[in-house]
């Protein structure tokens, strides 16, 4: 049962398991106590902090352990914003940050602060100049991920950090997806990460705050972790997190080369064998283990379900998967197709044979789903060109509106339009993306009695 | 090496260890995902929630898992205060709550709210009538622990809950110390607990919010745990927490009887064999496994250190232990002696022989520490009574001011006074407590050039 969703949660690394077991015996006591069990716990905590700080590239007293990557992000953003409140209450962040950053930004706005979302290009990367333009005299903090969690694209952290330094604005780098692969380029003021993304246990995040960065912890105080992470230290998990970070870093260089080749194979074979597919994200400046593609005329939930039946576990940024009804904000910001979206993120040690099998299975699964949905199999038939047409897809969920559009585009004259009436949120993203993939012109969106009218002009 | 500090952190219960190991293999994936690893994680999470809810006595959808007892308290208080913001911004809590409650209260006051601290009697219990008197028309929330973490005294939760219900005020019960021993009496609106106190792993707290309680989660939002606890679920630890709660509950009745008898033995033997000792807390309405006593003329840090050398691990509410320089707020609120304070909290399975050995060792250790400090060995000698005297203990740390007072009280005439000049914070608590123990009159405190002047009248 190949598990290809390491970007959600990596299976526990053997070193993490071993360290966790040892620390359950040695590190359950309160490290704040003076007796021997407490002193032993304190030694373990100090050693874990040193190991994690070395991997992050900071001083041990700059790093605290939080209860998750999300709480590290929340505490980091809140503390940095408050520490620079005199400067202003403006927060800059990219449009493709992890939801924990977006939630913190929303909370900041709800509390009267202001935010600027820096757009990304079609590969998912921010343009450093565009980022610099978002910095203002009252900018208290800037946030930029090291690499994107949905499409793998690396962000120009070093360039943005230099621009932030020039503007005197501290930069928080969310390194959740990349820290297991290597250190973040210098220049950050705050850094966050999450252990279960690199093969450590759940329940541990990292928050590093460089000396000299103004920081005022928010929420009720506490004595533990320099007042930056309340609650009893989850010491066994912290020990396991630090030990596994060191272990995965030791293996990172070789494993990155291997997984990068596997992902390159997925990128090329998917584009080759699956018709009407868009492989997204930067093909070169990317995480070694992650690739995302979108299949036209397919809905993400069915695709995931069918792949699961074939024993492949992947995730999707499409709407209608699990609890969410809106497509991924990352795909949306990139302006790429969101329907039939599949994210493959390979855990360390993934066998090449499993990837091969996935590539054998995938085209058939996609074809099967398309057939069931009545999607066009190849180029649509071209009867006598007709005048412009209206397609009513109201009440129909993604990918039906695009499938209906594809069915009739060949039936109108070149230069004439197809207007798709749709009220599914994903259509707003997927119809323009389809036009780009198909070389048709997306004229625009008009309000309608129900939903919207999306106008497409046939170019060829 | 007998470990007698279960109230700080209990060693991991074997069932917790077993469940944790199994869940590391079965429950590392994201329970929000649709593939099989995710579905399996979801099943484990649901089962853990049901087990924990049954132990708490609530519906599964009323309970969420947090990253610690402290974060459960912080989230519970913030959410309840915000949910009832229209009613008012007043918070009532006892003077002897855990520091997590006091920190949340301080944050509430810093944000413009108001708080009332309900006093306790000399046993550490609140008077329900006094609690009711603290409730106001604008009281948004009341907090009361189920039992005190430093002296073991049980609070009159049922009575206070009824009074709160009558006043229409929700009651948050911090059940961190008692939940492993049995359910909290009915009537609470919110309940919090911490797994590592009952033998579960670190990294798991419980927050239960009764349906119908107005609750508005604070801080950045999130999809997990009903929006009440952000971050990826620490599933292996959650599974271990729920399994161990069920296990310790199964053993609780028999083990409580056994530990209660051991604690009774400690209470009586300490009072018998150690001169000048005050055993504090309610002798009957108390946690089964916890007892606290204070030794006159002894400093807590040295006592802990000496007991540790004899291989006993206990904690202390005295000042000068570990990082804190002020005596325990609990002992202070009770008005009992804080110097030479020792808390013994027996883990489940504590052998009677270890308790016996502790009781053999303790009197000698206390005597040795007293001798080193030059404390009066028995009743002080009585030379010719003299006029009132002044003792200068400025710059001397606890327990020196009380030792100096004890040395000279026999030298003044009955009816005359001894004035102790002291600038150590603990003196404010310990000199009145000594007077009460010794049947002398504490006249009061007067400001002095440096520190304070504490006036004591000799009665006999």
TrEMBL record, chains A, B:
Please give the InterPro entries that the UniProt record associates with this protein. Answer: Aminotrans_V_dom (IPR000192), Cysteine_dSase (IPR016454), PyrdxlP-dep_Trfase (IPR015424), PyrdxlP-dep_Trfase_major (IPR015421), PyrdxlP-dep_Trfase_small (IPR015422), TusA-like (IPR001455), TusA-like_sf (IPR036868)
Which species is this UniProt entry from?
Answer: Streptomyces sindenensis
PANTHER family, per the entry: CYSTEINE DESULFURASE, CYSTEINE DESULFURYLASE FAMILY MEMBER
Check the record and name the PROSITE patterns matching this protein: UPF0033
| Family to which the UniProt record says this protein belongs | Belongs to the class-V pyridoxal-phosphate-dependent aminotransferase family. NifS/IscS subfamily.
Question: Keyword annotations for this protein?
Answer: Iron, Iron-sulfur, Metal-binding, Pyridoxal phosphate, Transferase
Catalysed transformations (reactions): (sulfur carrier)-H + L-cysteine = (sulfur carrier)-SH + L-alanine
Q: Name one Pfam family in it.
A: Aminotran_5
**Which region is the signal sequence?**
none
Q: Which cofactors are required for activity?
A: pyridoxal 5'-phosphate
Top-rank taxon:
Bacteria
Q: Which residues form the UPF0033 domain?
A: 391-415
Protein name in the entry: Cysteine desulfurase/sulfurtransferase TusA family protein
């Amino acid at each position: 049962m190949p598990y290809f969703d390491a970007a959600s949660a990596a299976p526990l690394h053997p070193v993490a398991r071993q360290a966790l077991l040892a620390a359950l015996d040695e590190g359950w006591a309160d490290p704040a106590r003076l007796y021997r069990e407490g002193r032993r716990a304190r030694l373990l905590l100090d050693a874990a902090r040193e190991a994690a700080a070395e991997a992050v590239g900071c001083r041990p007293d700059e790093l605290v352990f939080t209860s998750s990557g999300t709480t590290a992000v929340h505490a980091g953003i809140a503390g940095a914003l408050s520490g620079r409140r005199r400067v202003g209450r403006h927060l800059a962040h990219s449009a493709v940050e992890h939801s924990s950053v977006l939630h913190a930004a929303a909370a900041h706005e709800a509390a009267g602060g202001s935010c600027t979302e820096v757009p990304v290009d079609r590969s998912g990367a921010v343009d450093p100049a565009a980022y610099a333009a978002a910095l203002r005299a009252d900018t208290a903090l800037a946030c930029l991920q090291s690499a994107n969690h949905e499409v793998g694209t690396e962000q120009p952290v070093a360039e943005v950090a230099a621009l932030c330094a020039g503007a005197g604005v501290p930069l928080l780098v969310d390194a959740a997806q990349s820290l297991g692969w290597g250190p973040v380029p210098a220049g950050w003021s705050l850094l966050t990460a999450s252990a279960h993304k690199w093969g450590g246990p759940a329940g541990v995040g990292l928050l590093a705050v460089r000396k000299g960065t103004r920081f005022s912890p928010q929420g009720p105080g506490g004595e533990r972790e320099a007042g930056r992470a309340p609650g009893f230290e989850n010491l066994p998990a912290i020990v396991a997190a630090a030990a596994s970070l060191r272990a995965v870093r030791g293996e990172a260089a070789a494993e990155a080369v291997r997984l990068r080749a596997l992902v390159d194979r997925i990128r090329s074979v998917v584009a080759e064998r699956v018709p009407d597919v868009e492989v997204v994200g930067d093909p070169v400046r990317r995480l070694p283990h992650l690739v995302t593609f979108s299949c036209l005329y397919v809905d993400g939930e069915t695709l995931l379900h069918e792949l699961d039946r074939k024993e492949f576990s992947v995730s999707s940024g499409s709407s209608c998967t699990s609890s969410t009804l809106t497509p991924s904000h990352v795909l949306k910001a990139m302006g790429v197709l969101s329907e039939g979206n599949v994210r493959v993120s390979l855990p360390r040690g993934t066998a090449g044979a499993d990837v091969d099998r996935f590539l054998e299975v995938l085209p058939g699964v996609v074809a099967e789903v398309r057939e069931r949905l009545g999607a066009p199999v190849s180029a649509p038939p071209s009867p006598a060109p007709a005048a412009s047409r209206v397609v009513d897809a109201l009440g129909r969920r993604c990918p039906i509106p695009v499938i209906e559009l594809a069915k009739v585009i060949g039936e109108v004259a070149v230069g004439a339009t197809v207007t798709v009436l749709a009220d599914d949120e994903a259509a707003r993203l997927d119809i323009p993306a389809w036009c780009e993939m198909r070389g048709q012109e997306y004229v625009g969106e008009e309000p309608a009695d129900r939903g919207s009218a999306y106008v497409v002009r046939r170019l060829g």
